[in-house]
């Protein structure tokens, strides 16, 4: 059967623009690209503990057998939700199968027709998809600009009746820039206008806060946020996600969130892995190593004289802006050929002109690895600068 012409045209356009996405395997290279910030995804200690726990329960059960509302829940699942709610100082928690499921499930269900969603312009694609499924109107504000946000809130208040709910959405650490909004002022602004703040903590949990609890808790804002959403596929090294909020929010999501209702629950292995990873988080060892490596990385970009290329970030995500898909892909390939897994982030994933190399720092990266990869980066950047000058 012939592949549809319209689809062929779209693929051909991507190829012509050098923006065609492909899947690659990174085995054997020094990791500067994965979201496994604490090394939990590869931790033998966590693997062995999970194996023991599953054997103690019933090691023969491979799947959840159904949706959470039918046969897919268990004592272990509900215990994990209770423990996660306590860990994150929330009234309740609801597990989802992934961060994508959590975001589309939340934003397609909670904002109602006539409501308003105001979101940071760099918000994650999964949140955007959820908002597109919502019946509410959505408006963006300038990235991390609280003045822009306040103007949007005022405009929404003036154009909508008082009964309308306004939801304001940001991330505590942005996945493509690694930067952080002023969360205290963000929450204060939401409180001033009596709107509902929602914060995605996917890239903050495990990295920031006491025992990796996240930036919301680090700043003591957990009782002032309507909902927090975090995933376990980053620092926790597992799979799945959680929505943290009031008991009433949990009940609402159980009844109206379609990505929760109409899917099989997480399998026992995922539940045990999440629970065990949080046990390791309480020890805090890897988190301290990660913080030291982030600080060392930032020092080394100054040593190499390339700090002007990097977006300011205190997170595990450090981004070097190199304009143009062709240029950023070429430099990434040169670094990969030297044994370091550094990935290019291309447009349209990021805006044209904001292409970048995205460095993910880990607790297990050595100082030599950090020094070497940044020396390679500086060398290749200078080579391209000389070529551009000659041309």
From TrEMBL:
* Annotated Gene3D superfamilies: Aspartate Aminotransferase, domain 1, Type I PLP-dependent aspartate aminotransferase-like (Major domain)
Gene Ontology biological-process entries: biotin biosynthetic process
The segment(s) forming the Aminotransferase class I/classII large domain are: 28-374
**Cofactor field:** pyridoxal 5'-phosphate
The organism sits in which domain of life? Bacteria
Its keywords, alphabetically, are:
Pyridoxal phosphate, Transferase
Q: Which GO terms describe its molecular function?
A: pyridoxal phosphate binding; transferase activity
Please provide an example of a Pfam family that matches this protein in its UniProt record. Answer: Aminotran_1_2
The record's comment on protein family reads: Belongs to the class-II pyridoxal-phosphate-dependent aminotransferase family. BioF subfamily.
Q: What is this protein called?
A: 8-amino-7-oxononanoate synthase
């Amino acid at each position: 059967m012939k592949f549809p012409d319209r689809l062929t045209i779209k693929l051909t356009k991507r190829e012509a623009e050098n923006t065609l996405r492909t899947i690659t395997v990174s085995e054997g290279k020094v990791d500067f690209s994965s979201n496994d910030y604490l090394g939990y995804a590869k931790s033998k200690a966590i693997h062995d503990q999970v194996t023991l726990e599953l054997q103690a329960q019933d090691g023969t059960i491979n799947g959840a057998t159904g949706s959470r509302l039918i046969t897919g829940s268990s004592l272990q699942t509900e215990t994990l939700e209770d423990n996660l709610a306590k860990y994150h100082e929330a009234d309740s928690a609801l597990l989802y199968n992934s961060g994508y499921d959590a975001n589309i499930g939340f934003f397609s269900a909670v904002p109602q027709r006539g409501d308003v969603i105001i979101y940071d312009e760099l918000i994650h694609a999964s949140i955007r998809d959820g908002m597109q499924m919502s019946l509410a109107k959505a408006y963006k504000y300038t990235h991390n600009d609280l003045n822009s946000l306040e103007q949007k809130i005022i405009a929404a208040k003036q154009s909508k009746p008082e009964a309308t709910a306004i939801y304001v959405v940001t991330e505590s650490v942005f996945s493509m820039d690694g930067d952080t909004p002023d969360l205290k002022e963000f929450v204060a602004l939401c409180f001033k206008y009596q709107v509902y703040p929602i914060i995605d903590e996917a890239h903050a949990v495990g990295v920031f806060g006491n025992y990796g609890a996240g930036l919301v808790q680090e700043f003591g804002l957990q009782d002032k946020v309507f909902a927090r959403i975090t995933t376990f596929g980053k620092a926790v090294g597992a799979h799945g996600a959680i929505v943290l909020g009031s008991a009433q929010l949990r009940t609402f999501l159980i009844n109206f969130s379609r990505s929760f209702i109409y899917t099989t629950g997480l399998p026992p292995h995922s539940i045990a892995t999440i629970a065990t990873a949080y046990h390791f988080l309480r020890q805090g060892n890897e988190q301290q190593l990660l913080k030291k490596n982030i600080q060392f990385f930032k020092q080394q970009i100054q040593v190499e004289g390339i700090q002007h290329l990097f977006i300011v970030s205190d997170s595990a995500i450090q981004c070097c802006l190199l304009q143009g898909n062709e240029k950023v892909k070429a430099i990434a390939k040169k670094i990969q050929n030297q044994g370091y897994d550094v990935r290019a982030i291309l447009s349209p994933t990021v805006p044209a002109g904001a292409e970048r190399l995205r460095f993910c720092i880990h607790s297990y990266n050595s100082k030599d690895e950090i020094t070497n990869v940044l020396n390679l980066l500086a060398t290749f950047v200078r080579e391209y600068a000389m070529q551009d000058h000659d041309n």
